Give the backbone structure.
Amino acid sequence: MQKEARSQMLGHMNVKKLLVKLSVPATVAMFINALYNFVDTLFVSWSDGEIAIGALSIAFPIQMIVIAIGLMIGIGSSSIFSRAYGRGDEDSMRRVVNTALLVTLVLSVVITTIGLFMLDDLLRFFGATASNIGYAKDYLRLILIGLTPFSLSIVLNNLTRAEGRANVAMFSLLIGAGLNIILDPFFIFDFGLGMGVTGAALATVISKTASFIFIFMMALSPKSTLKINLRKLYKVDFKMIGEISAIGMPTFVRNILAAVLVIIINNLINFYASGDPAIYISIYGVITRMTMFALLPGLGLVQGLTPIVGFNFGAQFYRRLHEVISYATKLLVAYFFIVSVLVIIFAEYIFLMFSSGENSAYFIEYGAMALRVVALGFTLISFQVLLSSTYQAMGYAFRAFIVALSRQFFLFVPLAFLLTQWLGLNGIWWAFVTADVIAGLLSFGVYMYEMYDLKRKIV
């Protein structure tokens, strides 16, 4: 009955109400998750100073690689699951869940092993300096140990949303992020364990593990349509691995490129900065965390949209598909625009929160300028995000792949090298906004064509 009720909801409920129903839990969860990253960085800056923020930026590429793998498998498998759900194909639903979980388990263990073995070399490659490599090592060592439950929870979160249990996915993220926020001050500051950066990492590992335990237990529940069979978890459908990877590849590439961009930017900062580049790496760290905090809740809307798109595309309900994508676009563009305006207005106050020590005045002044420049392109990012996610939900892997590459690879990388030669360090921030504007306008044009094509299929 519960399966039939969820199928009825995805295929027949008013799409605007359905989008809100599935997006609100995801949006709340994304906001809390973004808040944890924001607070984590804030507490580290208060405990160990501005330079320690740079350590989080140095460690960020490894986290992004794990997120990339988890989202690739999670989004790829959930797309297959959603379409199979729409067709009523229970065998494919079971096989894709088993395959996704085992592949994630193997990959996360491999990354942890390699990361711990090559820790120092990785940090130097990521752009660590003499003044922040100690903080980065303390932080990343523990993060690597907690990668397996973290990556598995990402996959299960996507699959849980695909079966229409958005509230369960939301509570999983709330448990992880909420617990992290609670544990952070006790682990970081002197009134508790006084562990500084190491305490932030330990709080993160404990919290992510708690999040995984919750959503795994929910997935084993009879109420779930995921039908996880631990005795047969070793049975992998190798053909399905290829399909999962192909569909999830755009997200994988987007997140891997995000990691590559951090490495490139850190090293460009090391090359172009006068004096100790650590303060500029810390400024970039604040910009990264602030961007995530501001934009991630909007991505909750996209997460609510994808199971609706996948189910209705599989069922060939094109009228519902056109209506829900159109409505989601209006909401996402409006949200990203409002965020852009607010960040530009309050940029100095944002950096003031993270400031401490002798470099505070320059940290605030230069950081606020850089953040304002980056925020100019936020609005147009919405079209690229929505287009890429919609293509993935429909199973159009190559189209999503091209959209994902356009901003971060085809545009940002050459622009960053070109503009830094012309503008020095400031060229990094202008490369962000230039890439966002060009990619956003291109995505808008493709989006309009696809919506027109979708409307022609409505009979």
Remarks:
- The chain has 17 helices and no strands.
- The chain has a mean pLDDT of 82.
